[in-house]
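Example record used in the benchmark description.
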Amino acid sequence: MIYLRGILTLLGFAFLVLSTAPLQWLAMRCNWRIQRQLPLLFCRVTCRLFGIRPRFHGRIGGPSPQMIVPNHVSWADVLVLGCRQSPLRFVAKSEVAGWPLFGAIARLTGTIFVERQRPRSILRVNAALCERLAAGEDVVIFAEATTSDGNRLRRFNAPHFAAARDFLRARPETAYVNVAPVAIAYTRRHGLPLGRLGRSEVAWYGDTPLLPHLWALVTRGGIDCDVTYGAPMRFDRSSNRKAMARQTEAAVRRLVTANLSGRRAQAAEAVPEPGLTGPELKTV
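Model output (structure tokens):
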């Protein structure tokens, strides 16, 4: 039954991609409004297929455009964040573009790819982020630049925070950009708390092959993912990108620690997403 469930899940996922990707491509070419809703629908259906149950705590930082800066645990983080709002523009390493299925999805949703080994590509990426902010869209920056084992944070890098500075220079009428710290924590499997080992098994990091990790996830399922939105910080013309990176890292670290310890860092109730989570879910 476990193998049958895994096969059916992957077949369902492949059908979902093949049915939504051409429509999203056409919607982007024709600039249809549905291009904003399809990624939201895709992420919610995919999370349900894979057995991932996002639980959102707190409110989205502020009015768009804003920078959303979460910690990074797994490729599934993108799906989880995409269940809450759309459109979101993500920054991903260039290798993602070549991944089976996921690469096509990333390209069709306007993901901005960065070549980590070429520092000059950061300028191109920041210019693209600035354009997205100018279009009124929220952008997501994984400032760790890689994934962790789900138990700790890596150092936050500052280069992409410069996109907020460039945006403000181009838009003199705008006083600041909100930077929203967000904590992602995979906390339970089938209702039972995940310990350090369990979280590292759910995380995708280091040299872990993608396909075996995906297979383990879809055959076991039942993962609760707590996403906590912290109080937004203002990036204005006097802000320093390196200082903002340190402040954001400290805020996310506090939120992650609160999630993993079962203590909410802010008084926030879980917000179930329509058609995604049941009314029985509540803040832990």
